[in-house]
From TrEMBL:
Membrane topology: Multi-pass membrane protein
Keyword field: Membrane, Transmembrane, Transmembrane helix
Places the protein is found: Membrane
This protein's name: Calcineurin-like phosphoesterase domain-containing protein
């Protein structure tokens, strides 16, 4: 095995390790880095009184033709959709189901161009959503558990704001038919989750907002309610440039009037005073944010959860883990009712950057490996010649004035050919010709001279080259460039075949396994 193939073998091992980590094991990291939060120090997991585990996902926002203005049916759109979907499917299948939540809550923006898709395109997005968040495999099937309930909330990319909902009412009807109501509440353990279609609360047309506000006012009239968690897609009001905490990865997004990034101050205050939640959960921002709202009714912490997708402007996708008390009666504080922990998903772009760096390292290593590399081959042979000349015992003092020529054989070995002394040539019959050397007659001008040949120590097999050696030598002399290209491309193409096969296999396993 020559130098390039040895390098290819080493790089092949590095590629296999990198692909297994970047396509498989990296999605298992949240299982070790994201523990479920504890409500108290004496909490015992999996006991009858242990908290209920709720996992929160925000803005999967399945890409479509409206996402980046790509042409429908184009290869670019297909690749964008595939790599967006495979990331979320792997994260859900391994990270989410592996954490074994008992309930899953979606904070809206299930689709990207929901209101502007044709019925056929909308149905295709729905099928992709179901494929990504499929529970018929992984932890659920393997452990024989029941399917985890999933609760959804519409976002502005699902139904749009006021203008869209009034102009395209069939979009709202279609969403309700598939996912259920827009405003509702459910009881999980000892806590009530209140889902509100917040993007219509600031609508100028009263009829659009009346349904949601009526639902909120009805809840506010209840006496002695359970502790509540407010679930909304649009974040509540916060002043521009309000810090979002250490988990924020991008600049803070401020309010925009035409497409509001959060509710108005009046609507936010009215909503908080009516619900009085122990916690607010929101999405829409695509990045993490923590903010505490202060009203006359008290302080209300809000957690904005980052996008679950790596293609929505957030390099650090995330999800949130909630531990919910099974019995919240007489709870001393909100912290004893709901505990939260923000969990980050794999940074997909970092994986692809590493693949690119490893590709460059692989190509350079094969090209520049000293034993056979294009740039260092001549230097290596020259150094070897000097070392062999100095260590050879066959050279005598009187040979120092001779003329020498370097010759390489087909196997890469170097030989020195003595071209004779620098002094005038000696005729054949001269007594000065050394009897210890073999002689070869040659004619220069009108005189016949002798070339003295000296070979450095080498294997005896090289003294009588085999037919295959002679053929390789002839081939190299005839097509030296083509031989060099083949020697370089052969290990590179072999590595590419191995890596691409493994990569495609890992993709297809996650894409098709049920």
């Amino acid at each position: 095995m020559n130098g390039r193939w040895r390098v290819a073998a080493v790089m092949g091992c590095m590629w296999v390790a990198s692909l297994l980590y970047g396509e498989v094991f990296i999605y298992r990291l949240p299982l070790w880095t994201c523990p479920w939060p504890s409500l108290n120090a004496n909490q015992v997991q999996d006991s009858p009184k242990s908290p209920i585990r709720v996992l929160v996902i925000a803005d999967p926002q399945i890409t479509d033709r409206t996402s980046y203005g790509m042409k429908p049916g184009s290869l670019a759109l297909w690749l964008t959709q595939f790599y967006s979907d495979i990331y979320m499917r792997r994260a859900f299948r391994t990270s989410v189901l592996g954490l074994e939540p008992e309930q899953i809550v979606f904070l809206g923006d299930l689709f990207d161009g929901g209101p502007f898709l044709s019925p056929k395109e909308w149905q295709e997005s729905l099928e992709r959503f179901r494929h990504i968040f499929d529970q018929s495999q992984g932890a659920i099937k393997d452990r024989g558990r029941k399917e985890i309930p999933m609760h959804t909330l519409p976002g502005n990319h699902d139904l749009g704001y006021e203008a869209v909902q009034t102009q395209i009412p069939e979009v709202v009807a279609h969403y309700k038919q598939v996912f259920g109501g827009l405003d509702y509440r459910i009881k999980i353990g000892g806590v009530e989750f209140v889902f509100v279609d917040a993007q219509v609360l600031d609508a100028a047309v009263a009829d659009v907002a009346n349904s949601s506000w009526s639902f909120i006012q009805e809840i506010s009239k209840e006496k002695n309610p359970l502790p509540r968690v407010l679930v909304t897609h649009i974040p509540l009001y916060r002043p521009d440039d309000t810090p979002c905490g250490a988990n924020r990865a991008s600049p803070v997004i401020n309010q925009v009037i035409m497409t509001p990034n959060y509710l108005t101050e009046s609507s936010s205050t009215r909503l908080l005073d009516a619900i009085k939640p122990v916690m607010v959960l929101s999405g829409h921002d695509h990045d993490q944010c923590y903010h505490v709202h202060e009203t006359t009714q008290g302080s209300f912490p809000e957690y904005t959860v980052g996008s679950f997708s790596w293609q929505q402007g957030n390099l650090y996708p995330s999800m949130m883990l909630l531990s919910i008390a099974r019995d919240a009666q007489n709870s001393p504080s909100p912290e004893a009712v709901v505990a939260s922990h923000l969990c980050f998903l794999p940074v997909q772009i970092a994986v692809y950057i590493w693949y690119g760096v490893l590709l460059i390292i692989t190509i350079l290593a094969i090209l520049l490996w000293p034993a056979r590399g294009l740039l260092l081959n001549s230097t290596q042979k020259f150094i070897a010649m000097l070392m062999n000349i100095r260590s050879s015992s066959g050279l005598k003092a009187k040979d120092e004035d001779a003329e020498w020529e370097m010759v390489w054989d087909a196997e890469g070995g170097m030989h020195l050919i003595n071209k004779g002394p620098k002094t005038p040539a000696v005729p054949i019959g001269s007594s000065k010709t050394s009897a210890k050397r073999g002689t070869v007659a040659r004619r220069t001008g009108h005189e016949l001279h002798v070339d003295t040949i000296l070979k450095l120590p080498m294997d005896t097999n090289r003294l009588s080259p085999s037919p295959s050696t002679i053929l390789r030598s002839v081939s190299r002399k005839a097509h030296p460039l083509s031989v060099k290209i083949i020697q370089i491309l052969a290990p590179i193409l072999s590595l590419a075949g191995l890596n691409i096969s493994l990569y495609v296999m890992l993709l297809m396993i996650d894409w098709t396994t049920l």
